[in-house]
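[Q] Does anyone have a clean structure-token version of this?
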Amino acid sequence: MSRFRASFIHLCISAVLVAAVLGIILKVWYPEPLLEVAGAFPVVRLLVLVHLVIGPLLTLVVYLPGKAGLKFDLTVIGILQIAALFYGSYRLYDEKPDYLVFAIDRVEFLSSKQIDVSAMQFDGTDTERYAKLPQVFARPPENPEEHRRYLASLTTGQPDLERRAEYWEPWAAGAVAIRNRVKPIDEIEVSSDRERENIRLAIAEFGASHPNLGVLPIGGIQRDLGMLIDRDTLEILDMLDANPWPLDAS
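[A] Here you go.
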């Protein structure tokens, strides 16, 4: 068997494995649009690169019929690929978003490892969902003494409001506070033609069925994105690729 045929067989086997793993990642752990929002795309890209490019390329380099130690070389390549697959998959599973949380003026996508789920005061399934995630509202403490204790806890390194499950409530319970922070889509201050076009496309797609469109900023991510929301019902519709913050605050 030639080295090119060996590399091609390696590519086919790797493609089957990667396709199976990607199916779980994209359909179960990171349904659209969570892959981009959670910043998981670079890990997925690395998995694909290792298995569909580097692995078969190494086989192409080392494979030589009758070569001493060929089995050992191929075994090492296979072990390294499998290890990379398990590590990447574990990392993606461990960091997958489990909750969509509104706090103060933005929404964040949080994994269970970032919060103490046992502190929740309500059944997390009893609320609206987006991309299979429970939507919750983090209400700042209203009792003056409790608010003082909360502020004091921040100085000792305790998590911010969005990560404090004891302050979470169902999405609908925060309707007034959320609605007050949803900016009408026509008030977004665009900084580029690309953002202007993305807003136009969002209005074209959702404007007829949701005439009162608005946008909430997404926090905790590397670039500025917004959540497209119906300002009347507070239904989350899609992700908006545009900076939702005022330009003078960017």
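[Q] Thanks! Anything notable?
[A] The chain has a mean pLDDT of 90.
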